[in-house]
Design a protein that fits this description.
The structure is a homodimer of 337-residue chains. The first copy, chain A, is α/β, with parallel strands linked by helices. The first copy, chain A, has 14 helices and seven strands. Chain A has a seven-stranded mixed β-sheet. The longest helix of chain A has 18 residues. The first copy, chain A, starts with a helix and ends in a 13-residue tail after the last helix. The relative contact order of chain A is 0.15.
């Protein structure tokens, strides 16, 4: 077979995807955010671009809670932990009289809203440790199959943001590796990251607890210990990216103060870079909080005025959910609040 | 263009690599080790095989020192550390009278051979910390460009084992992701893993020290701190694989007692698995140590009789460098010892 026919074949095969997908971001309204994404991808992946980034250096990192899916009124993982407290309560009669468990069992929302970091640490230690890594994955999968978001009354895995799913697919179609870099539990997110976001477990970087290698019935297992190993938030996001990837991202996406270091770390890379913050200003279709007001900030997931100021100063793009997103959810359009 | 021509094109493109590479392992002698590799790859990747492993689950992990390149008489990283002690000595006059630095500066090989783990910790803290992650990478690259192995008189990066390079390429050509899982320093290995082994930084799992996020002249940097964060050896290899990959390997390759947990962790996976130990029994072309005798085991990198017994019991394949490898080094055949 002549070489020219082979070359023609290659051209045809390479050329196909471009025809199949005219607008890669149909859930984004026209505007500066969408334009910035399209420009960035073209500048860093077109073969003739002076800003071309080699494929092996195409790294994009995404915060999860509030950036890829709903995180109000509580992180999904916090709801999982509270449900686990209820499930484990029969084995812990002392919890009826011991805080923070007492408040959880009494479903005292005001008290739960005021839990300190050490309250949550006690709850995580009681609910996320003491089982094998495989056993924990099963617990999370079982919970996800049954649990519903208290307002939207849908499984959490259906509350991923459609525009962000499109963005991740678009970046991957252009040779980018998409990583989740979450303050949440690494193993928790790995239970659904591949199914919901198309992100395999080795591309999920998160907070983790210690695991201990043991032989049980002649088989090696990793048991989860009630002790923090790594916190992947704020400076931890830059540290985690270096630890797990060993390369700086070319693009990074967050929604809260805990993502600032990741965006700075990305901006300090060379070439064209894209830093974006998802701004929850849509009280109709989702929530409005941070400087957009409407809801009080929770302690975690804060979008402070200082972050808004830094975004402006550093030319980070603030994505308005209200103006920039045509649709918010993937499988359905949910009723207003 | 008719669909049938497109299909023909696809077949042609897919069919090409098979013709281009008749024997994927030319540096391996015929024998049980080579047969086991060929059988494993066919069984886990042929579309009609009942043992077919989905592409996203094709993970192969490799120890580095002694498995992928020469680790005697000292690990390359230990030689780097000793050279750094010499380079930094003018700034540390107290080292002339303080162990373990005094022995290093006096080039007292007998004393260095007896260094304890805490001696090495002092040396690592003095030579691997106090600079940024980028600064450290530069130091390692500079050293690699100049340093030579004391016996072979070649750069360390030319002392990778050709049969293992062929094996890694062969696995990758069949959809496997190849990871390095090393007791050595993660950042040290990342300085050359892509160039020498074709393994990108995010696929290097190793021991690491703490890093601290700081702003310097308005730019974020990660400074290396003189404190251990994670030891990726023995149980740490199973823990590190779960932490970084979140999936069990289908194949694992080691050469010492520190790799046993990684091989057990791999064997506890489902389906066809391949566990191999590289056995240094070639005093002519490289070294003979462990039960093969010839050289005393160093404290690190030991191949004990217990490991040999476990290999036999668990049907792990012991690769004889002398019998199974036609050639040992990549760019040249080195003179005998």
């Amino acid at each position: 077979m002549p070489r020219s026919i082979l070359a023609l074949c290659a051209l045809l095969v390479v050329g196909l995807p471009a025809h199949a997908q005219p607008d890669p971001l149909p859930s984004w309204n026209e505007g500066p955010a969408k334009q910035a994404i399209l420009h960035f991808v073209k500048a860093t992946t077109s073969k003739t671009s002076p800003q071309l980034v080699p494929p092996e250096e195409r790294i994009a990192t995404f915060d999860q809670d509030g950036t890829l899916w709903v995180s109000h009124p509580l992180y999904a993982q916090a709801m999982f932990a509270l449900d686990r407290v209820h499930a484990l309560a029969p084995k812990h009669p002392e919890w009826k009289t011991t805080e923070p468990f007492k408040a959880v069992l009494a479903e005292d929302k005001a008290a739960i809203g005021k839990f300190t970091e050490s309250d949550w640490e006690l709850i995580v230690a009681a609910t996320h440790a003491g089982m094998s890594t495989e056993g924990f994955l099963e617990l999370v999968k079982d919970w996800l199959a049954k649990a519903k978001h208290p307002h939207f009354q849908k499984p959490h895995t259906e509350l991923a943001y459609l525009p962000m799913l499109e963005l991740m697919r678009y970046l991957r179609a252009n040779g980018y590796k998409t990583y989740i870099v979450t303050g949440g539990g690494q193993e928790f997110v790995r239970a659904y990251s591949e199914r919901v976001y198309g992100v395999p477990p080795q591309q999920v970087i998160g907070s983790s607890i210690l695991t201990k290698y043991e032989m049980q019935n002649g088989q090696p297992v990793l048991m989860r210990e009630p002790k923090v190993f790594f916190i992947d938030d704020h400076a931890g996001k830059a540290i985690g990216i270096n630890l797990f990837i060993g390369r700086r991202p070319q693009a990074a996406f967050g929604n809260s103060d805990g993502d600032a270091e990741m965006l700075r770390w990305t901006q300090a890379n060379a070439g064209d870079r894209l830093m974006m913050l998802i701004y929850h200003d849509d009280a109709e279709r989702e929530y409005a909080y941070g400087p957009a007001g409407g809801l009080p900030d929770t302690k975690v997931g804060t979008f402070s005025q200082a972050l808004m100021d830094e975004a402006k100063k550093n030319h980070w793009i603030v994505v308005s959910m209200k103006k920039d997103w045509k649709r918010i959810f993937s499988s359905h359009e949910l009723a207003g609040r």
